[in-house]
Amino acid sequence: MSASALVARHCFFGCLLAASLLVGAATADATAVPEQTSLEQWQLRRLNEPSARELAHERKGNIYIYDGLTDREVDAALIKHFGRIEYMMFVGTRKTDPAGEKHDKAGGNAETESPGCL
What we know:
By secondary structure, the chain is mainly α. It has helices at about 5-25, 35-50, 50-60, 70-80; strands at about 65, 90. The chain has a two-stranded parallel ribbon with strand order 1-2. Helix 4 links the parallel strand 1 (about 65) and strand 2 (about 90). The chain is elongated, with a radius of gyration of 23 Å. The N and C termini lie far apart (about 55 Å). The relative contact order is 0.10. Residues about 15-20 and about 25-30 have low confidence and may be disordered.
């Protein structure tokens, strides 16, 4: 390999490394939705407004495991979608107080009715 090709190769990989570091160092947008919130929103959509494909998947005997929803969300779903209960499993259900606020343990973790998947 010639010297100029070696320099070009090092320059290319150096630029690639710098670009990847810049992407990782970019500040998060304050209006961005945290990943957990997006997952919770997706689970609630799937639970309350499943697509035709998701319903067909359930009718084939498949079960979806919902993780981290609140006890109020679970109770409402069990009443509203009683006919689909056999296709639902809830783990890590977060407890709420009468006002709907989530309970937190001393360490800042949400208090759950089940330990979730271990």
